[in-house]
Write a structure and sequence with these properties.
single chain; about 120 residues; alpha/beta; 2,3-Dihydroxybiphenyl 1,2-Dioxygenase, domain 1; four-stranded mixed β-sheet; 8 strands; about 20% helix; metal-binding; Glyas_Bleomycin-R_OHBP_Dase; Glyas_Fos-R_dOase_dom; metal ion binding; methylmalonyl-CoA epimerase activity
Amino acid sequence: MTDQLASVRYVVDDVQAAVDFYTGHFGFVVRTNVAPAFADVVRGPLRLLLSGPASSGAKATPADAAAAGRNRIHLIVDDLDAEIDRLRAAGLGFRSDLVSGPGGRQILLADPAGNLVELFQPAGS
């Protein structure tokens, strides 16, 4: 099954907070959780590797690249307005305004470590 998944590694300050964020708000399922060092969660074909400060993944990260970056995971949703309402009701804030373009609409929020998550609703859906 692992060879059928696309994996992304996020370096996080608090592995359990990241697990709670992704499983509690976005439907990810825990595969491995050895917090505080590491966990991986899955949603469809996406495997998100959550590496805490004690993990080998975090230790291999150069100091000048240690902060959360401009890269982000891209999650497609059926009803962006409903997702925004649901997440606001859960106390989450957004890092961008709602943006519309020819391909669809999107909004950004950040996980507890500052890594970006893009919620995207394709045009016509």
